[in-house]
Design brief:
The structure holds two protein chains of two kinds. Chain A is of the alpha/beta class. Chain A has helices spanning about 45-50, 75-80, 100-110, 115-130, 145-155, 175-190, 205-210, 235-245, 250-255, and strands at about 5-15, 20-30, 35, 60-65, 65-70, 85, 165, 195-200, 210-215, 220-225. In chain A, a hairpin with a 2-residue loop joins strand 9 and strand 10 (about 220-225). Classes of the chains: A alpha/beta, B mainly alpha.
Amino acid sequence: MSQMKIRIRGLKKAFGPKIVLDGVDLDIAQGTGMVVIGGSGTGKSVLIKSILGLVTPDAGVIEIDGEDVLKASRSRAKELRSQIGMLFQNGALFDSLPVWENVTFGLLAQKRLKRAAARDKAVEVLAQVGLDAAVAGLSPSELSGGMQKRVALARAIASEPAIILFDEPTTGLDPIMGAVIDELIVDCVKRLGSTSISITHDMASAQRIGDNAAMLYQGKVSWTGPATELLTTPDPVVHQFTHGLADGPIRMALRR
Amino acid sequence: MNKLLDLVALVGTVVLGSVAYIGELGLFALNGVSHVFRPPYYPRLVGKAFMEIGFYSLPMVALTALFTGMVLALQSYTGFSRFGAESAIASIVVLSVTRELGPVLAGLMVSGRAGAAMAAELGTMRVTDQIDALSTLSTDPMKYLVAPRLLAGTIALPLLVALADILGVCGGWLVATKKLGFSSGAYLSATFSTMQPQDVISGLIKAAVFGFIIALMGCFNGYRSKGGAQGVGTATTTAVVSASILILALDYILTQVLFVK
């Protein structure tokens, strides 16, 4: 069995009376891609934000390389999380900065790169996601949605992170551009040997970018298995979700 | 009985909400100020915020000060001429402008322009995940977004007010000499003989405090905004309204501290 890069146990988070995560357990092996699926409001983004440290869980364990980031000192937790790259759902590019500064922002912040060399590095990374050097000097608002996603991907991989998190990477893109982004994600993750967690509602995308999949339902992981089995598993919750069926256990639970 | 309990509950909720808000604001301010003094520093961002708060507010503050000085001279003349005290106009204009109207009016104008812009910018960054993105890129948003604005606001407003003082006095001089028939030399002589260094300095101290408050309220409300475009709009309005009220309230407190023994 390969070593676990990320191990999550009993993760709980509530916002007031609303329990979002109610004891999530998840293992992600080194160098593999985990796709997390689930209905809207089931806590997928909260799970990712908990790993990033943007949300503080109420209870549970999040281990990276066997070390619990929730119990680690502030500086150690920051160090552990510095190996995480993140692609946000809407790109979250900094409007006030040109593309090249967006791409190399993390490297400059970590002082792993001199400002003078940053533009060349950005051009190099932009090429890896299929973007021309001319894009480097543009502002994010001058780019199409697909190009913005590519720039956001370039920013996520620029520091060659050991872990990359993708929050609905193909949302808002046409099917062809979605497939292109998926291809780039698979290519980048493989090339870097990174471990990835992706959130998606797109089953075709889930099967392209994930080795394994997990279904988040009622605050817990209700099913895990190979991503290739997403559409064939007999699990009633996953079956209803992946086939987009109106009737089934998810709707019955919503009615209660 | 139930209505009374509801009223008590409502009062309790409002009081607790206000205490929580003040506590959050206090912690936010302390955190922001602490980042001003701790590395890494972002001089480029301080310069950019300084331009935004100070330089781009110049025309608005300049016009406000000029017209305020002009109106002040006219209104003072209307009142003082009834008592044959027209010679006091120069003193009234310079003292009013340097001690009070310069810092307060500049503060209110900058709050409406730069404070609103700060809240809108940070609010948009919050609702589009840009602030979260900063955290994931090894950058503390408080240090990167808030500290430079707090520092720039505290530095920029006194400089704006110094200019407002000069233009306010010029406005008064313009009306007094061109419309009311005062001698230019006599007006200026009365102005400089009345004005004491502490009048100007106390106005500049007020301006520094107001600059800090404008930046603080802009950043605080923008930083914690939520709920998309409507949330950003609410944050912007709250930033301007709260900064304006705080400026007026602090103006009284600072006036007491600086002028009354």
